[in-house]
Amino acid sequence: MKRFLLTAVFLSSSFFGFSQQKEWTLQECIEYALENNISVKQSQLDVDLADIQISDAFGNFLPSVNGSASNSWNTGLTQNVTTGILQTQTTRNFSAGVTAGLTLFDGLRNFKQYQYAKMAKLASEYSLEQMKDDIALFVANAYLQVLFNKENLKVIQSQHQITLEQLERAEALVEAGSLPRGDLLEIKATSASEVQRMIVAENQIEISLIALAQTLLIKDYENFDIAERDYDVFGNEILDVPVSEVIEAAEEERYEVKVAEMNTELAKKEVEIARGAYWPTLNAFFNYNTRESGAGRFVSAGLDPDEPYRQIGFVESTEEIVVAPNMVSELGNPLPFFEQLQLNDGISYGVQLNVPLFNGFSTRNQVKRSEVNVLRAEYQMEQTKLDLEANVYQAYTDARGALKAYEAALVAREAQQLAYEYATERYNVGMTNAFDFSQAKFNLENAESEVVRTKYDYIFKLKVLELYFGVPITDLKF
C-alpha cells in the first residue's frame, strides 16, 4: 500500500510537472507581442484601409453603370403615354433604364489619386514597422527588468546562505564561550534583514512578470514565467563607430524618417490633385431606356356604320370628290408587358464637357491650403530628423555611460570581494566583530547587485543604439 501511494504521488507530480506552461524566451515574447499587441493590430488596420483606398482610386478609372426602374400609379387628368391624349383616368406606368458613364479626362486627378493611394499605403507600412520596433524594445526592456529582478534575488539568496552558515558557526562558538552573544545577535539581525530583502525582491519579480504579461496580453499571470539564462553583451563594437555614421545610418533606415518623408510626398501630391480642378472635365455617357403602361389603347373597330366614307378632297378638273374609309376606333386592352418594352425602348449617348470658369475661389484656396500643408510636412520632416539626431546622440552617450558604469561595477565588485575575504579572515580569528563583518558582506551584496543592474541596463541601451544604426529588431542579439 505504501509503495502504491508513493507511485501515485510520483505519477501525479510528473503529470503536473509536464502540464506546466513553458517558460518564455525573449524572442518568443517579442514574436508574440508583434502578433497580438493592440497597437500593432491598429497599425495593421491602417494598412488594410490603405489597400481599400487603392481599390477606390483604381475604381475611378472604370466606367460607372447604374440601372433604374419605377412603377407608378396616376389618378386624374393625365396624359395617356400611349396616345398622348389628356384624359381623366387611373393608369399604371412602368419605366426602366441603364446608364453608363466614363470619365475621359479630369485634369489627371484620377491618376494622381491612384498614385496618392499607393504612397499612403507605403506610409502606413512604415508606421506599422515603426510600431513593431517600439513594441519590441518595450517588451525587451520589460523582459530584462524581470531578469534583473531574478538575478538580484539570487544575489540576496546567495548572501543569505553564507549568513546562515555564519549563524550556525556563531551559535556553536557562543555556546563554547569563545564568542560574545552580541555577535550572534548581530548575525541574526543580518539574517532577518536579508529575509526581508528577499521578500521584497520576490514581490518585484512578481510585479515585473505581471507587467510583461500585460504587455503581451496574457491573462494567466500565475503560470507565466520567463526562461532564465545568462544574457551576454553582444554588439559593443558599435561603440567604436563614430556617432556621425550612426546618425547617417539612422536617417536612412529609421521608419520615423521614412514616414515623415512619405508624408511630405503625400502633401505634394495633394497639391497636384488640387490643381487638377483648374482643367476641364470630359465625360462620356450612354443610356438605354424603355417604358410600359397599363392604360388601354385605341384600336380599329372597322368602318363607321353611319358614315362609312368621308370626303378628304376634291378634283377641280373632273369635279370628282375624293373619299376615304371612315374608320372608327375603340379603347382596347394594353399590349403585353414585354412587347411594350420592346416597342418603346430607345438609346441616347454622347459626351459632356465641363469647363470651370468661376467657383468662388474654392479651387484656388484649396491649392493654397495644400501648399501650406506641404510646408508643414517639410517642417515636420526637418523636426523629425533633428529629434532623431538628438535621440541618437542621447542613445550613444547613454550606451557609453552604461558601459563605463558596468566596468566600474565589475571593479567595485572585485574590490568588495577582496574586502569581504579579508573581513572573513579577520572575523574567523576574532580580530573583528560581527557588525564589521556584516557590513563587509552587505557591501559585497550591493556590489554584486550593481553589477547585475548595470549589465542589463547596458545591454538594453546597446540594443537601442543598434536599432538606430539600422539593425532589424529580429536580428538583435541578446
From TrEMBL:
Q: Which GO terms describe its cellular component?
A: cell outer membrane; efflux pump complex
Q: What is its main location?
A: membrane
The protein's UniProt keywords, in alphabetical order, are:
Cell outer membrane, Membrane, Transmembrane, Transmembrane beta strand, Transport
Q: Which GO terms of the molecular function aspect are on file?
A: efflux transmembrane transporter activity; porin activity
**Secretion signal, residue range per the UniProt entry:** none
The cellular location(s) given in this protein's UniProt record come to:
Cell outer membrane
Q: Which InterPro entries match?
A: OMP_efflux, TolC-like
Question: What PANTHER family does UniProt report for this protein, alphabetically?
Answer: OUTER MEMBRANE PROTEIN TOLC (PTHR30026)
- Into which family does the record put it? Belongs to the outer membrane factor (OMF) (TC 1.B.17) family.
The identity of this protein, by name, is: TolC family protein
Which organism was this protein described from? Salinimicrobium profundisediminis
